[in-house]
Amino acid sequence: MEEKMVFDEPYVAHYQYSVGAVGTKFFTELRDNKKILGMRCPACHLVYFPPRATCHRCLAKLDEWVELSDEGTLITYTVVHYSEPVQPQEPPFAYGLIRLDGADTCICHFLGEVDPESINIGMRVKAVFREKGEGNMLDIRYFKPL
Amino acid sequence: MADRVAIVAVAQTKYEEARPDRRVFELAFEVAERVLEQTGLNNDDLDIRVTCSQDHLDGMGISDVPVSEVLGAQYGAEEKIASDGAMAARYAFIQILSGHYDVVLVVAQCKESKVDQNLVANLAFDPIYHRYLGLDFLSAAAMQANRYMHQHGITPEQCARVVVKSLKNAKNNPYAQRAMDISVEDILRSPVLAYPIRQLDAKPVSDGACAMILVREDRAKRLTDKPVWIKGVGSCYDAFYLGDRELADCDSLAAAAKRAYQMAGITEPLKEIDVAEISAEYSYQELLWSEGLGFCDPGEGGRLIERGVTGMDGELPLNPSGGLLSGCPTHVAGLSRIAEAVLQLRGEAGARQVPGAKTALAHGFVGPCGQLQCVMILGK
Ligand SMILES: [Zn+2]
Q1: What DSSP state is assigned to residue A102?
Q2: Which of A109, A124, B341, B364 has the fewest CB atoms lying closer than 10 Å?
Q3: pLDDT value for B2
Q4: SS3 for A118?
Q5: What span, in angstroms and rounded, lies between the C-alpha atoms of B109 and B33?
Q6: Sequence-separated (6 or more) residues with CB below 8 Å from residue B345
């Protein structure tokens, strides 16, 4: 058989992503007080998660923080059956888009403490926090059914 | 300003699971050489080369440079569109309309076999709020599929029919990578990748390239006796965060289509369009995009395929080529859809020809859940 040569090389660079002033406040509250914060737009009044400095609809500057509930409604989900090195969980696991009470947009996160067969769109879920926060999205371990 | 822009030549490689015999820029050269041959144009006749690829997928920064080099760009002009191939063609169209250029070569090339596509897709998400969770385009699409199917009562069987149709059509396409007679049951028995998407609901990993030459109206007649005219183009962007979007609708596609239809003077797309080539990486997308393109009302995508409207003998044959489900790499996808539309309008689509096609639609998208959409209307 004709030889087909391949060069195997990782494409690796280590990045330092600044979370910015908005992200720093969000992650500090999440880490230290287990609070999930969003931001309300002064112009269109939508409450956003994740919090951000600019409303993408009216381009208003956002500075009004809103504490969101740790409970919400499941808008959609998937159960993942394949494995990738960037997934922090072993398959099968579930992702969900959750509209937290008090927010207009959804948070994307894991679903846990639930049989994949019994997950359904519209179900009520509640955040389960990591005991000792580290200041990243996994300070919420997952959302479990209420 | 130029009045009209014509596509005067198109070429595609056969799409294959892997092309270990070619580096990615060699695939680009292969198709570029063929469109130059078809038109008799020389490298010196090209005003600019527009290529389409993405750095992370290529595994190098400024990854257009080695590609443009073999397209004759040294001491000449080149630009790169890091988006879908349809956006590259749209850009070339606008370049010519601007009056700056008369003859533009557009090439999209990609070797998906090079790297785990899910890892590359993961890099497209916000590193802090989303990437960290391990999301990729497949898991995101699965959430869109679930939301869409739940909202509108779309069934897995209706989605599977898209695969059956695509792979059957692909038997008539010499460029297709995957073509077969397959049943709805076969698809529903294939392993679940991310619920509700199964292995056969998804497009395969693919390598290949596509090229075309776009020219100003007054240059077209000398280069071909079968010019295909770009009648309308529209593109539209949707929000960055998945949670900001209503995934069961495709408002950005509807907006892109509206712009393209307005420009082309189309008011009843299902009646006025003779053939459509659209980009669906997963089976549900053909149904959802059909709604966005106005081929049916919102929520009616499932019934559209059940009624056979989009079959080869239907009112609007959709993806006679087999589309992406039959194999075509990302970035090349939308340009390949345009190339297939051009072949249809030239009457050169062989066994997959829709008889008498006069008006065609081609569509491409990029990003998770169809984040950026592009629609092009072509005519004889
Ligand atoms: Zn606003």
Answers
A1: T
A2: A124
A3: 54
A4: helix
A5: 14
A6: B228, B357, B358, B359, B360, B378, B379, B380
Contact list, A81 vs chain B (CB under 8 Å): 191-195
For residues B296 and B290, give the distance between their C-alpha atoms in angstroms, rounded to a whole number: 7
Does B104 reside within a domain?
yes
CATH number for position B31: 3.40.47.10
Residue B77 lies in a domain: yes
> Quick one: pLDDT at residue B167?
98
Q: What distance in Å separates the CA atoms of residue B169 and residue B161, rounded to the nearest whole number?
A: 12
ipTM, two decimals: 0.97
| B332 inside domain | no
* A111 token code pair: 């679903």
* Nearest one of B345, B347, B215 to B274, comparing CA atoms: B345
- Rounded distance, CA A139 to CA A27, Å? 9
Contacts of B242 in chain A (CB under 8 A): 97, 106, 108
pTM as predicted? 0.97
B142 touching chain A per CB within 8 A? yes
Domains contained in chain B, number = 1
Work out how many CB contacts closer than 8 A connect A with B.
111
Q: Where are the domains of chain A?
A: 20-145
> pLDDT under 70 in chain A at which residues?
1
The pLDDT assigned to B1 comes to 47
Give the Cα separation of B263 and B4 in Å (integer): 12
Q: What pLDDT is recorded for position B217?
A: 96
| Domain-embedded: residue B36 | yes
- For B75, list phi and psi in degrees, rounded to 5: 65, 15
Q: Is A105 on the interface with B (CB under 8 A)?
A: yes
Place of tokens 């190098």: B60
Q: Give chain B's mean pLDDT.
A: 97
Residue B266 forms contact with A (CB below 8 Å):
no
- Alpha-carbon B219 to chain mean position: 26
What domain range includes position B99? 5-115+205-223
Compute CA B108 distance to the chain's CA centroid, rounded to the nearest angstrom: 11
pLDDT in tens, B176-210: 999 999 999 999 999 999 999 999 999 999 999 99
Where residue B361 falls among pLDDT bands split at 50, 70, 90?
A: very high
Q: How many CB atoms lie within 10 A of CB B89?
A: 33
Reported as a single tens digit per residue, the pLDDT across B55-99 is 999 999 999 999 999 999 999 999 999 999 999 999 999 999 999
Buried b (16+ CB within 10 A) or exposed e, A61-89: ebeebeebebebbbbbbbbbbbebebbeb
- Which positions in chain A touch B139 (Cβ < 8 Å)? 78, 80, 95
Instruction: Report the C-alpha gap between B110 and B28 in whole angstroms.
Output: 9
Cα torsion A67, A71, A77, A82: sign:
positive
